[in-house]
């Protein structure tokens, strides 16, 4: 499909999805759908950005949540700073958002320049080591981060450009727009020649290098972009909870994102979103009936991995392809017999 045609199609789908999300948030008075979807926006961006590394580039990161947490902390700290909000006024929110993304991106450049030179298990555990380093900094730098209590006192939600983040409806729409824009950015990247370069590196990095691809540079660009998008997820969660907490930078947060990818599917673009929704619903339902949440969720994930041997959307995609291939084979056979 022509890239321009595909871009227009994806843009229309994104616009339609945004309209549906806004309609749900504004059309239902109960707060639960807005809270549920806002949490999915944050978790979905974390999982989808991580899947740019795992599913498209073949880099399994155990420390991706560090960038998620860093984005939330930078955003929250800036808005809690009276000097910053006083000097920037109405522009404090967009500038804090930009600072969170750029700051996380710069941190990712430093970390990525070291990590992307390694492969497989070495890359995975080095990213985990850097995540636990950031987690330790958050816990120990109590005067700045609040230590194990997180950013206490709430994050100010000033009004800007007619958007009042103190209003639950305005805040929800703002988070929905951030989510859809970031998903669209990832879609454009993964369906562009750059995205197919990532797939080539995933499948055979040696061949990609032989064809003239600067494998290290391409991996680093993907690492930085995915980290910056994860930071936006942290910003959304910081707005939602009016705080930022060290648990966001703990290894379990990265593990949960990997579970989402495994559950939803890593070879389908929207697979991690489905995984985020499924894991959140599963977690909420299980907590209603038992306190052994981790055991039940672990059994479900094990069933998906061992039973389907792939994520849910991966299974559906393969089933559909096999069905279409069988239909075409039947049509060709009937044509020859006729």
TrEMBL record:
It is a multi-pass membrane protein. The chain crosses the membrane at residues 37-54, 61-79, 91-114, 121-142, 169-190, 220-245, 257-282, 294-312. The keyword Repressor does not apply. InterPro entries: ABC_transp_permease, LivM-like. GO terms for cellular component: plasma membrane. Its main location: membrane. One of its GO terms (molecular function) is branched-chain amino acid transmembrane transporter activity. It is found in: Cell membrane. The keyword Transmembrane applies. Keywords: Cell membrane, Membrane, Transmembrane, Transmembrane helix. Pfam families: BPD_transp_2 (PF02653). This is Amino acid/amide ABC transporter membrane protein 2, HAAT family.
């Amino acid at each position: 499909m022509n890239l321009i045609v595909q871009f227009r199609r994806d843009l229309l789908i994104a616009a339609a999805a945004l309209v549906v999300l806004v309609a749900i948030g504004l059309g239902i008075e109960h707060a639960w759908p807005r809270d549920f979807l806002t949490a999915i926006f944050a978790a979905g961006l974390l999982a989808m950005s991580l899947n740019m590394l795992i599913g498209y580039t073949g880099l399994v990161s155990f420390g991706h949540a560090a960038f998620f947490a860093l984005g939330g902390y930078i955003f929250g700290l800036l808005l809690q700073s009276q000097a910053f909000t006083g000097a920037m006024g109405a522009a404090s929110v967009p500038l804090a958002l930009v600072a969170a993304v750029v700051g996380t991106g710069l941190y990712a450049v430093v970390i990525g320049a070291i990590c992307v030179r390694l492969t497989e298990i070495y890359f995975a555990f080095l990213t985990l080591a850097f995540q636990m380093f950031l987690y330790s900094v958050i816990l120990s730098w109590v005067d700045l981060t609040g230590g194990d209590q997180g950013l206490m006192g709430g994050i100010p939600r000033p009004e800007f450009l007619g958007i009042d983040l103190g209003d639950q409806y305005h805040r929800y729409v703002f988070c929905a727009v951030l989510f859809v824009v970031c998903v669209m950015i990832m879609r454009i990247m993964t369906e562009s020649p750059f995205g197919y370069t990532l797939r080539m590196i995933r499948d055979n990095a040696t061949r990609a290098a032989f064809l003239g691809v600067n494998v290290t540079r391409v991996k680093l660009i993907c690492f930085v972009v995915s980290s910056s998008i994860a930071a936006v997820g942290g910003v959304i969660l910081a707005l939602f909870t009016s705080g930022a907490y060290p648990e966001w930078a703990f290894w379990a947060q990265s593990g949960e994102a990997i579970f989402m990818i495994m559950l939803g599917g890593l070879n389908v673009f929207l697979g991690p979103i489905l995984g985020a929704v499924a894991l959140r619903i599963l977690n909420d339902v299980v907590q209603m009936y038992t306190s052994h949440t981790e055991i039940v969720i672990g059994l479900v994930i094990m069933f998906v991995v061992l039973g389907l041997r792939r994520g849910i959307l991966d299974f559906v995609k393969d089933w559909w392809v096999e069905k279409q291939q069988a239909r075409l084979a039947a049509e060709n056979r009937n044509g020859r017999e006729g």
